[in-house]
Specification:
five-stranded mixed β-sheet, 19 helices, alpha+beta, 46% helix, 3 domains
Length: 621
């Protein structure tokens, strides 16, 4: 655990010190007056670093083992070393700056925008491009060559890899890019504008709702920070032509925010993609504080230079300490204690591994643990070191039945199988367990469920291996073409290992459960995610039972992402309540839009309910 989290935590803490040093380097001297300005450097660096240290977002990110922590640290060090190397004519600092710049591509994808920062800032120093600028180029060229040479040498391995595998360079970017194929120029501009606006709101107005990055809704900056940030941005724009340090902060903010502005997914604003710009944000806050202090001192306290600086330092210290207390309370008492964190950080897998680690070896019992192959969590593989027989089963495997059978067949003394099931709302963990229980119910006997360590364990016995396992023996032909771009092409109904014909009445005795297999096909261009509703109606037509489930393919994708034209099988298990009176019932199927809840209708008939089978329920008691 320390190997995973300690380096990122140290990088996050180191960023605080790097911001303090960078603030001193950028603002510790007055280039126009040709003299040192230690108080300004100390206050700008100290306030920026202090507020960053007690930032809730920086605390959350720094304790979560994100590689983006290294981007913030290395970029701060690179800029501080570069500034110091050029101003002091220090070759050692320039080489170290090149090393830091060369390491940036190994950190986090937004680091790819750092070269634009270096290029734009370098060009800004040459404006206007005249004889003086050309002389400056000749003078600075050796240092620039050393910087670029060292950067290229350190970055060479990953650059060579991307040159040999260009698809790797664009893979993640293509997945989240705002500029999607088929979107016209006007639509692209509107999408970018909306995305930029949503991310600008993070500076004092609205934050991300994603628990992994933030306390939902909390903006990146609180109202006091936001006031000084926007003031700092305004003052930096005002002093853009004459003060390179202000210009650098604005270019830094713009260049490193591009990763967030040009990408979009479910989490907007995306605090993680903004991390490369975070140091610049807090330095701009401290610039805003400094400019307010300078204005008040020149207007009202001209004769109290040192005293007024001490008062500002004391007030800033109190502000930072108060905010630190608030952040501590928010982080430890609200954020980490929230029940949503269980799902956000996949705590179920940790609890499962810890619980099974305590179980002794038992040749008679096997635990089956459902997991999605695509997007699945692999913490269990790392944490489980117990003696109990436990197998992870990929519920999105096309050969699920054979996978379960192969996991169980070698067990000569097998007497029971326990299927792990999380909270029904925790789809991130237990998605697909119904398929496993449906198959075990088909080839074994359900003995009941029990809670253990916050988990549900479904127990099955009398497992049959006398013939190969399949989801169904055959599909009964049933074709239903719906008006929503999806069609039904067959079904199978059964109890235990026996498949039953839907052409005859199906009799259920004391054990009122069945399994149902259905086969679907989607049309090209389908954009709707469908769910099905399986309902039981009594002889008078009244609905007495209902079970709604999502339609997922073997990749656990919903219908809008299915491959058009290809068959998709679903297997479900349904258990009818024991308090239903004995008698005749109809099992019906409704398919509906999961977002609008509008049911799809059968073409030409315009019926929304399909009768799957007729059931007879005996007395369950």
């Amino acid at each position: 655990m320390l190997a995973l989290r300690l380096p990122a935590a140290l990088a996050s803490a180191g960023t605080v010190f790097a911001v303090f040093w960078l603030g001193q380097v950028l603002f510790g001297s007055d280039a126009r007056a040709g003299r040192a300005a230690p108080w300004r450097g100390l206050l700008v660096g100290g306030i920026g670093a202090g507020l960053l240290a007690v930032s809730l977002s920086h605390t959350v990110m720094g304790r979560a083992a994100f590689r983006a922590n290294f981007l913030s640290l290395l970029l701060c060090l690179c800029l501080a070393l570069t500034w110091r190397g050029w101003s002091k004519r220090s070759w050692q600092c320039i080489v170290l700056a090149g090393i830091c710049a060369g390491l940036l591509p190994y950190t986090y994808i937004p680091a790819r925008f750092a070269p634009f920062l270096f290029l734009l800032f370098g060009l800004s120093l040459l404006w206007p491009f005249n004889a003086l600028a050309r002389e400056r180029i000749r003078d600075e060229l050796p240092r620039a060559a050393v910087f670029l040479g060292v950067t290229g040498l350190v970055a060479a391995p990953i650059l060579i890899h991307f040159a040999l595998h260009p698809d790797h360079f664009f893979m993640r970017s293509d997945m989240v890019s705002v500029l999607r194929p088929g979107r016209g120029p006007v639509d692209s501009l509107v999408a970018i504008f909306n995305n930029v606006w949503d991310h600008l709101l993070a500076f004092g107005f609205r934050g991300t709702d994603y628990w992994r990055y933030n306390l939902p809704g909390r903006p990146l900056l609180n109202p006091y920070e936001a006031i000084f940030f926007w003031l700092g941005v305004g003052m930096a724009l005002r002093h853009w032509p004459t003060r390179p340090a202000y210009r650098l902060l604005l270019l830094w903010l713009g260049a490193l925010m591009m990763a967030a502005w040009l990408s979009r997914d479910s989490y907007v604003p995306h605090f993680l993609r903004m991390m490369g710009a975070t140091p610049a944000v807090y330095l701009l806050i401290s610039v805003g504080v400094w400019e307010v202090f300078r204005f008040l001192r020149e207007r009202y306290f001209r004769e109290c230079g040192v005293k007024s600086a001490i008062v500002l330092a004391a007030a800033a210290t109190g502000w930072i300490l108060a905010q630190g207390v608030a952040t501590y309370h928010t982080y430890f008492d609200k954020w980490t204690a929230a029940p949503e964190m269980e799902a956000t950080y996949d705590v179920g897998w940790t609890k499962l591994a810890q619980a099974l680690n305590q179980h002794p070896a038992n040749a008679n019992t096997v635990y089956l643990i459902p997991r999605k192959r695509h997007g699945g969590h692999f913490g269990f593989d790392y944490l489980y070191r117990g003696a109990a027989q436990a197998h992870v089963i990929y519920t999105d495997s096309p050969s699920l039945a054979q996978s379960i059978e192969s996991a169980l067949v070698p067990r000569e003394r097998l007497s029971e199988v326990r299927v792990v099931d999380w909270n029904p709302d925790a789809s991130w963990a237990g998605s697909g367990y119904e398929s496993i229980t449906a198959l075990l119910n088909k080839y074994g006997r359900y003995q009941g469920s029990a809670e253990q360590g916050g988990l549900q364990l479904h127990t099955f016995t009398d497992i049959a291996f006398d013939h190969p396992w399949t989801s169904y023996e055959y599909l009964e032909p049933l074709t239903v073409i719906y008006d929503g771009g999806i069609s039904l092409h067959g079904l199978a109904l059964g109890k235990g290992e026996f498949q039953l014909s839907t052409k005859q009445q199906v009799s259920l005795e004391k054990e009122r459960f069945i399994w149902l297999a259905v086969q679907w096909q989607t049309a090209p261009g389908l954009e709707i995610d469908y769910r099905i509703s399986v309902r039981l109606h009594d002889a008078e037509g009244a609905r007495v039972y209902q079970n709604d489930v999502a339609l997922l393919d073997h990749n656990n994708e919903m219908t809008s992402r299915w491959k058009a034209g290809g068959p998709v099988d679903n297997l479900f298990r349904f258990e009818f309540p024991a308090d239903l009176t004995a008698g005749e019932y109809e099992l019906r199927l409704v398919i509906y839009d999961s977002e609008t809840h509008k049911p799809a209708a059968e073409l030409d008939i315009w019926n929304t309910e399909i009768v799957l089978a007729r059931l007879h329920l005996d007395d369950a008691h």
